[in-house]
Description:
- Keywords: Signal.
- Residues 1-25 form the signal peptide.
- This is Secreted protein.
- This protein folds into two domains: 34-127; 131-244.
- Helix content is 48%, strand content 21%.
- It is built from nine helices and eight strands.
- An eight-stranded antiparallel barrel has the order 1-2-3-4-5-6-7-8.
- The chain starts with 5 loop residues before the first helix and ends with a helix.
Amino acid sequence: MPLLPRSRVFAVALLSALVLAPAAAAERTALAPGEYITGKGWGTLKISAGGSGRQRFEILTVNVGHYCELSGTLERGRGRVAADGDLPECRITLADNGESIDVAMTTPAECKRYCGANGGFDADYLKVAPECASDGLRRTRDAFKHSYDGKRYAQALATLAPVLSRCGRTLSWEDEGDIRNDLAITQYHNGRYRECLATLQPYAEEAALDDAELADSWPPVLLDRRLSIVRPARTNLRLCKRKLGLR
């Protein structure tokens, strides 16, 4: 087999590099599929697997009691939401910063049409362990409820207790409130009354108010949801204090 001249060998190598470079770049810039959550859980980002550097994304955020949604295609760190009816095209960038995916609206005026002037999608969406993503939390809470309803309180406590320590930074205030109440009443049934009080400490001040007083601190659109947390917290605090001889 005749040998190629060095100049032709170089040309073939260069051509191969040029052909492979786009695929390698796409592979480097593809974002890991999965669910990412903002601190305090007010926003979630889901990225699906895709080929040739093209993926899909979904973002859900909360803006003063209502939900804002974006979904579209993602390629090499650039997201695009196609125009739909009265809604314009929205473009965003997504960058992997190691601990999170940083999302920024590159067309802010257009993207805000999907959420309102005071809302948006810009945030660091944190990488979370599978048990802290929405499906993982749902499985844990289902397992907890199964044990609790069966009055297997020790097992219920062991199931739910790790959630606050492992997932606390990405829980929404609503999920956190429900979990703290469930955990506190389970601690009560396990005779852990001081732990019960510590679990509910974030709501002690509000629980000392009546509903009318609490209404002054929360907008109407959020008040009912907050009361659904504070009311059981009042009851659970009372139960645990009574066991400790406290008022």
